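Extended Data, panel c. Modelled sequence:
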Amino acid sequence: MRGRSAVLSPRGAALRLGDLAEPLAAMTGQRLDRRRRRRRRRVLRLARRVGLWVGAALVVATLAAGAGWESRWLLRTAPFSVERVEVVGQERLSAEAIVRASGITRGQSLWTLDARRAVAGVEALPLVRHVELIRALPNRVTLLVEERRPFTLVQAAGKLVWVDEQGVAVAGEARPVAMDAPVISGLSPSDLAPNGRVPSDRVATGLSLIRTLKRAQSSLLSEISEVDVSRPEGPVLYMVNGVEVRLGREDWESRLGRLQRVAAQLRATNQSVTSIDLRFRDQVVLRTAAR
């Protein structure tokens, strides 16, 4: 007999078994009910999500409205109106002049005052270098002022003017004063830096040379009376005894060291010269006074 010896054997060919009975109506209804329940659950989940988003939006809108009302209340309420303006750090300027330049007035809201404008107004004063504004609750403003300090005198158009270390003109000087640094000469009024601007190259050269002398704590500070910055070949120094010193444009520290040694040697030998030229490398040129 030809055929299969094991119909259900795993090694046998796959057989397609037909339905032995039609599905019952109850079974069909169960499948439909499960589909409806799953659809209902999806709809409920979507409704919950939409409700959560709508609720969150309402909460945010409520908080924003409350914050807006509270912020307006803070801006307008009297406890946060400026009652006192303190000025700290000034020496030559009066506190009244600084407050007036800031534009801050009593009764102004502590929150709405324009700090940048107030600082700019004070820094526009010639004697002021830097200002910081601090708000202090509930009703105080403090202005921390750094004034410009005179660094040295410069001579421009026959007038002596004090400048600070940045070359900004601080004040004129008409009285005789004892100086601990040389006067910078060879300048025009346009060389002096207006407030907030960069000084000219000639002023910057003179200031840099004086800083070099001070940094080295050189005794030459008391022996040099004037620094002429008008020469294109570099600054020319005039000693207290009238000797002219040509320094050149570079290597100032080593050249000033040589000048100090040469001056000491001239004093020791009682030799008189009219000029000293230090512009050449490893060489000093002296011009002796005529006898």
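The two ends are 155 Å apart (CA to CA). This feature is highlighted in the accompanying rendering.
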